[in-house]
């Protein structure tokens, strides 16, 4: 019997990153993985709270961890890279900082959950279910570079996820379902997601560099695991092409969408049609 996990979607997956939520839920349903969305979850404070207050930046994700604990959930899956890092920090920091733990215990008027596990979908798809055994569609025509972004593996002592500088979990998972993934040097470089509205010239340069390296190694698509990265690479591709007078034609997939396609889930049920850069003809 396949497991059931608590599910923390976070703000992005209920809005601009809806394709990630839709495709993740579809893949879990196909693989008989149970999900229980945490009741009363709130924003984790990513991109803002941790720059303002240590207590606030820990209290926000801790609220949702406590809600999960009160539902009897011991393992929570968190797809968004920003949410993943904030929830992991909340568990790590309160386990290693007695003063912070006491302050939050007083705020919430209860003991904090100390053993709850915060997991990424890549972990459960790689370790808990037989994804390869469920493959029904050939996607060998795709040559993908896996872009993990700068948050999933850093800092390593907190995240304890994959190899910090050269992660392979997404690559190995996609290879197991027949998708070619290519070695490249931009796996964990920042795309500038946190500055997408304030430093657009810097962001366009960072995104341009990512596209250039992807094309240089022969990629015809990019796989991501972060809604901020997806938004940057997908929505900015046309303006970067115009600024640098080039053409990339690089569809940006969530890795859950690629898994879903390999499992035979129709593209429209994975929300691929919502992307700015079309994948028509490739899948």
UniProtKB/TrEMBL annotation:
Full protein name: Cysteine-rich domain-containing protein
InterPro entries noted in UniProt: Cys_rich_dom, HdrB/HdrD_reductase
Keyword Oxidoreductase in record: yes
Keyword Nucleotidyltransferase: no
Domain of life: Bacteria
GO molecular function: oxidoreductase activity
Domain Cysteine-rich: from-to ranges: 6-88, 144-234
Record-linked Gene3D superfamilies: 3.40.50.11810
Pfam families for this protein: CCG
Upper taxonomic lineage: Bacteria, Bacteria division WOR-3
Keywords: Oxidoreductase
């Amino acid at each position: 019997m396949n497991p059931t996990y608590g599910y923390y979607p976070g703000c992005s997956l209920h809005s601009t990153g809806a394709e990630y939520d839709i495709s993740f839920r579809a893949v879990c349903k196909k693989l008989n993985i149970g999900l229980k969305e945490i009741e009363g979850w709130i924003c984790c404070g990513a991109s803002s709270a941790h720059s303002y207050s240590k207590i606030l930046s820990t209290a926000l994700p801790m609220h949702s961890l406590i809600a999960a604990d009160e539902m009897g959930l011991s393992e929570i899956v968190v797809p968004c890279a920003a949410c993943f890092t904030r929830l992991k920090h909340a568990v790590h920091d309160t386990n290693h900082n007695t003063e912070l733990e006491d302050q939050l215990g007083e705020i919430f008027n209860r003991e904090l959950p100390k053993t709850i596990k915060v997991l990424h979908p890549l972990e459960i798809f790689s370790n808990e279910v037989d994804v390869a055994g469920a493959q029904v569609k050939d996607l060998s025509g795709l040559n993908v570079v896996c872009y993990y972004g700068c948050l999933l593996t850093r800092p390593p002592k907190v995240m304890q996820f994959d190899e910090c500088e050269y992660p392979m979990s997404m690559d190995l998972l996609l290879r197991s379902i027949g998708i070619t993934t290519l070695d490249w040097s931009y796996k964990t470089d920042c795309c500038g997601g946190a500055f997408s509205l304030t430093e657009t010239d810097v962001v366009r340069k960072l995104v341009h560099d990512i596209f250039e390296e992807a094309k240089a190694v022969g990629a015809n698509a990019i796989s991501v695991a972060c809604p901020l990265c997806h938004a940057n690479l997908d929505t900015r591709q046309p303006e970067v092409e115009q600024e640098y007078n080039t053409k990339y034609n690089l569809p940006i997939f969530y890795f859950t969408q690629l898994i879903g396609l390999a499992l035979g889930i129709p593209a429209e049920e994975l929300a691929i049609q919502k992307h700015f850069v079309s994948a028509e003809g490739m899948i």
